[in-house]
Design brief:
single chain, alpha+beta, Uridine Diphospho-n-acetylenolpyruvylglucosamine Reductase, domain 2, Cytochrome p450, 3 domains, five-stranded mixed beta sheet, three-stranded mixed beta sheet, globular, oxidoreductase activity, acting on paired donors, with incorporation or reduction of molecular oxygen
Amino acid sequence: MHSTLRRQLLDFVSVASIPTLFLFTLQRIYSLSAPSSRTTITLQWIATILCALLLFAPSLGLLRRKPVASALHSISEPPLVPSYLPWLGCAITYLMGPANFLRTCSQRYGMTFKFLIGGNYVVAISSPTAIANFLRDRTGVFDVVDYQLIPLLSNLTDPSRNQYIYEIVEQKALVAANHGLSQRNLPKVSTTVNYEIFKTLGNVVGKGIQLPVLDFVQRSLYVAVSNSLLGSHFPSLATFDDFITFDDGAPSLLRKMNFLARPAYRARERLISQFARYIDTAWREEEGGGGSLEGASEVMSDIVRSMKNSELTKDEAARLMSSFFWGSHTNMMRTTTWMVRHLATDSILLSRIQRELQAAVDSKFYDAQSILHMHPRDLDGPEFALLTSFVKEVLRMNMLPTSIRVAVRDTTIASDNGEFIIIRKGEQVLANLYGLHHAPHIHDDPDAFRVDRFLNVSTEEMRQKKTLSTFASGQHMCAGRHFAMHTMRMFVIQLLHFYDIKAAPLSSGVSPSLPPVDRFSFITVTDAAKDIEISIQRRDSVPCDIVGTE
């Protein structure tokens, strides 16, 4: 520490003395010249100033470039990942497989590294402290670029409108979403989504069915969540295929790979048309300048009202709704799909979750009605501790980086062990959640799936340790995090309580194993390289009168 302090003091003395030394040198150089005319004076002054600047340019650069940090802490530049492609840098390697690229770089360069991609330097940070400080920063030094994805997803083509649209999204729409989906207000929509899951499972499964896990989860969750949030005026069944096409092509849209994104582009435009018609059909004006969506959830009415009270056009509002809608579905679908795959291929895991569920039913939730009226607070209790740990472990294993911001000036990010990471103006900072969640010194055996990894870890303890980041943090934390956690757990509870599930055997007769991750996964939660089929049979105890099928 003493050597570090001495070095910092020497830096301070050298920097503080620059102006004095500069003037002294300027004076000494000029005194050697003894000018005899006005023209000569001018030329000699110019020469004098140039000489002094050449002598002290490195020190002046130190003044301009040195980021501010505590004198008692070390600061360091992130190691640069080498690349032999000018401007493109590591773009091809990263875009072809973000998870593999980040894993390889983390193993080779540590928790922080820098790489060039498309003319921009990206600093990937993985340490718990650095990610927490980065996401919670309120100094304005990092400009959020997440919203710049909205035009790509929504096809907003007028750049002059983008800044205003971002302001409406951040200051109006997201405020309404955060309020309406908060823990306090979640019960206003939770019972509806519970019933919609129940009815949709009944309609999809009937008495029994065998189908791919991905198709089963996507179809069931899409219809249930759409109906619970938007009501009967929105044609959830009729829009399902277009939504899936849009979701499949979203990575190509975000990467501007238009030649691959044509089906997604056309499906998105059809969805936007449906949203425009839905808003016109379902909106009911009220006295006092208000209004609401007939049959929809309160939170969706609040979001649409915030856009109607702005200067957004009808087309812009419909396009934003399509983006919100996509964001509210895609992560839940992918995460729940992984959960069902784990349950179908791991009989021990399935048995453990079923035993916990049965114990909760025996002690507290006696019939179908009590299960469908579960309060969100019930799912956070000890009765479902293993299920909650299950969700968190699936998210830990499969989350990809989502938060990226650009530095508007030179700065530093406080990291672990009193270290500071240097960030230069214009560099983008990526919260490398995959690196955080797969670091062996943070999570024991990080590549192994352990359903009870978070069983005895309280929410407060995780918040303090900062070792799990699944819904971001700070002012840009996911607005639908409480809704998503409730919906995913309720889906699993109902699936296991009302149905028998097992993985359908392969053509060889062998039971399938958990499929590997698709190395080309690009958005938020990984995809599987291949899918498995699941056999689902309705139990005789299921009350058919509210299932929606015979």
